[in-house]
Amino acid sequence: MKKTGLFFGTFNPIHIGHLILANHMAEFTDLDQVWFVVTPKSPFKAKQTLLANTHRYQMVYEAIREYPKMSLTDIEFHLPQPNYTIDTLTRLQEQYGKEHRFALIMGEDNLKGFHKWKNYEAILEYYPLYVYPRLSKGTIPPALREHPGIHRVDAPVMEISATFIREQHGAGKNIRPLLPEGVWRYMDEMNFYR
Ligand SMILES: Nc1ncnc2c1ncn2[C@@H]1O[C@H](COP(=O)(O)OP(=O)(O)OP(=O)(O)O)[C@@H](O)[C@H]1O
Ligand SMILES: O=C(O)c1ccc[n+]([C@@H]2O[C@H](COP(=O)([O-])O)[C@@H](O)[C@H]2O)c1
After folding, report:
1. What ipTM score was computed for the predicted complex, to two decimals?
2. Which residues line ligand 1 (CB under 6 A)?
3. pTM above threshold 0.80
4. pLDDT digits (tens, 9 = 90+) for 158-181
5. What's the fold here for domain 2-159?
6. In the chain, fewer beta carbons within 10 Å around the N or the C end?
């Protein structure tokens, strides 16, 4: 049984903040590996300049190709939108539950609004949450603060955002160090976010 942490996101594009975090989870917790779940449509996210699913998937592939403990899945491409995490977890459990024990990787910012997620109680009951620190407003609801299924992970805080990368790249600034090399190359060749 492999303990597999799931890192959900739109990854538009994936950047070194995501990668450092995923690596921290794979190397410094009891998780054996991390799977990136590329989301077509996050429930609360306003419509933004979202690249096609396949391009965002390809960029995650480029970012993790030399990291044996990381993998990615397009499972949400085949599920109804917006993509509710509980539905994806159920599907993953059906398909891979015999070989994998799944956990959810989440930033502290998302934990603050977690009580608004679809069937969040069910998520908490069946899947451990690995929560990393992030600078953000708001507070963690008291019921979640001491919940036994929530594990705090002391990962480094990196305030890099995909929105900033898209905007500044579009404005002609050099954001290259914020992207894994393969992601930068793909984005540049494909003329994304220009
Ligand atoms: N610098 C970062 N460090 C750690 N976690 C991050 C960082 N940036 C985003 N995340 C988290 O990673 C997950 C996937 O991020 P996602 O691509 O969906 O959003 P984002 O990077 O915040 O992009 P956008 O700016 O387009 O909203 C989210 O849960 C988000 O909170
Ligand atoms: O299931 C839900 O109700 C739900 C609500 C908000 C967000 N999510 C998941 O959390 C991931 C990160 O969300 P976001 O909006 O911070 O990018 C996103 O990719 C979704 O998979 C899930």
Report:
1. 0.96
2. 9-12, 17-18, 21, 107, 109-110, 134, 158-163
3. yes
4. 999 999 999 999 999 999 999 999
5. Rossmann fold (3.40.50)
6. N
